[in-house]
Design goal:
The structure is a single chain. About 65% of the residues lie in helices and about 0% in strands. The N and C termini lie far apart (about 80 Å). With about 100 residues, it is mainly α. It has one domain (about 5-20, about 30-80).
């Protein structure tokens, strides 16, 4: 469970690692604990990017597979013989004779 203090701590790490556009980036100096937090945060961000890319590729792959399977099912449906619940074929046409 994330408490308010944890959330604020995370925001301070983000603010340290990612300064605003008006400020040029300069790595933290002197505070080893803050630097370690920043390094961990950056490592987590890199890992999240990798995981996000893997998820996107997996979703694309699965979408392709589903489309292929639906195509096969559609093709099979056209080739199935009539079943017990399908309408009887009209061999004589609509008018009979």
């Amino acid at each position: 469970v994330c408490t308010l203090s944890h959330a604020l701590s995370g925001l301070s790490v983000i603010a340290t690692c990612f300064p605003t556009a008006a400020e040029p980036f300069s790595p933290p100096q002197g505070d080893a604990a803050q630097s370690t937090k920043c390094d961990r945060h950056m490592a987590v961000q890199r890992r999240l990017v990798v995981v996000e890319e893997m998820v996107e590729k997996t979703v694309e792959h699965l979408a392709t597979e589903v489309k292929g399977l639906l195509g096969l099912l559609e093709e099979l449906a056209w080739n199935l013989p009539p079943g017990p619940f399908s309408p009887a074929p009209d061999l004589l046409g609509e008018d009979g004779f």
